[in-house]
Amino acid sequence: MARLGVLTSEFERPTLEATLDAVAAHNIGAVQFQLGSAVPSIPLQTSLQRGLDVLGEHLSPARCQQIRDQLAQRGIAMAAVDGTFNMVHPDQERRWANLAHLNQLIGYCGALGTSVVTLCTGSREDIMWRFSPGNDLSDAMTDLVAVMKAAAAVAEQHGVTLAFEPEVNNVINTTAKARQLIDEVGSPAVKVVMDPANIFKAGELPQMQDKLREAFALLGGDIAVAHAKDLDHDGEAGHLGAGEGKLDYPLYLSLLAGTGFGGTVVLHQMHHLSDAQIDGCFDFVRREAPAGFLG
């Protein structure tokens, strides 16, 4: 049976404790942990844009223990920890420096109490969420495979799963390319974050059912984490809370349930949900899910 969770960065609070208090106040029992939630000295938006590029220096056993203790005090499980950085950054030295941070984070997963690290495949731009024409060139995939193979080797040693998210502005911008990446890396440690709101481009709403079915046909056996957000009304990749846009949630959740998925469905939105929205979005996902799928 799957469960509902939330990305901690949905709660903009001044301290880790205040963030987790807000999660607990909504009776949310699991999180995808964004490390910026534990480093209040770095603006949340900066940590989301830069990931380990700015957060990597703050990793330490003591901070990991603090995070785990604070989660445990509130009965919150860490479904995954966010290890995003720009895996195809045009500056090769930055790519490999951040890979070192990722490898360190993988090694800390046991201390954090999770076995899943979520990733962004990146862009040839400085900001990993920004589109670049270079994303579709063969050298971008070559660089990505090299970084992912190196990370996967470390993940295998620690029993950790690396879950990357296909996204229209990144190198892995289709589910077909996601399948290609998994096959080329060839590691059991590499899985996906299923977020169908991120695979649509403007104008593709008429292809809704076909694109969803294709995504699950290609990736249904390799889903580590699922996301719940929504498509803008013209079909632009997800910027809305679940139930506020055009994604076919009954089909999405029935396809997800059909894979036997028993992990966490993580609620989030590109520009942060208000506290009032969060409860409404959770209620919506529960209503649209097949009977018995969500605990």
Please tell me about this protein's structure.
- This protein is 42% helix and 15% strand.
- It is of the alpha/beta class and 295 residues long.
- Strands 1-2-3-4-5-6-7-9 form an 8-stranded parallel barrel, surrounded by 5 helices.
- The longest helix is centred in the middle third of the chain and has 21 residues, at 92-112.
- The radius of gyration is 18 Å and the shape is globular.
- The termini are close together.
- 47% of the residues are buried.
**Main CATH class:** Alpha Beta
Secondary-structure element string = EHEHHHEHEHEHEHEEHEH
- Rough shape? globular
**Per CATH, which architecture?**
Alpha-Beta Barrel
- Report the radius of gyration as a whole number of Å: 18 Å
The count of strands amounts to: 9
Which fold name corresponds to the CATH topology? Answer: TIM Barrel
| Largest beta-sheet details | 8 strands, parallel, barrel
Number of helices: 10
pLDDT below 50 for ≥5 consecutive residues: which ranges? none
| % residues in beta strands | 15-25%
End-to-end span in angstroms? Answer: 6 Å
The helix content, as a percent range, equals: 40-55%
**Overall SS class:** alpha/beta
Structurally, the number of domains stands at: 1
Mean pLDDT across the residues is: 95
> How would you write the strand order of the largest sheet?
1-2-3-4-5-6-7-9
> Quick one: CATH superfamily?
Divalent-metal-dependent TIM barrel enzymes
